[in-house]
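For practice. Supply one:
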Amino acid sequence: MNGGQENMARKQFNFDSVRRFVKELIKRFSEDEVTSLSAQLSYFFLLSLFPLLIFLVALATYLPIDYQEIFNIISTYLPDEVTEMIYANLDQIVVESGSGLLSIGILGTIWSASNGINAIMRSLNKAYGVDENRSFLHGRLIAITLLISVLLIIVVALILPVFGRMIGIHIFSFFGASEQFITFWNASR
């Protein structure tokens, strides 16, 4: 009998602790505005996609790359209707605009993506209970700096595994680096 009561009390304790956990989770979820902050993040990063596409298409006109190839790569990941809409709009923009498209695309991308980084900063401040005391300009400069840093890290992370050996041999050949240093470079990259 005593063992049965103890087992019943353990079950009751577990149920009460789970119920308290769920109540606290729901309370914190609404207080920290998780849904609205996640909507902000997705909106700003989705908004930065179109200026990025404009920038890439404008950049492709200066490179020996046909921007049709960019659309072919994009079309493998997007539904056909979305691809057609993007293709029609970007094709019209490329045909009608001049050389200012590259700068407009990069500025639009940086501004809208920095809004996303700014939303991440607000979300983290909210999650950790930190009051924002920076000015708008200071916060925007930090967001742009973080954005450029993340982009550089992503580019380096994508380039080094593929082209790292060739880059290392090319750069270190000017300095007369030994084969041991090239081996060290390959291991460290």
Residues 137-189 form one domain. DSSP finds eight helices and no strands in the chain. The CA atoms of residues 129 and 147 lie 23 Å apart.
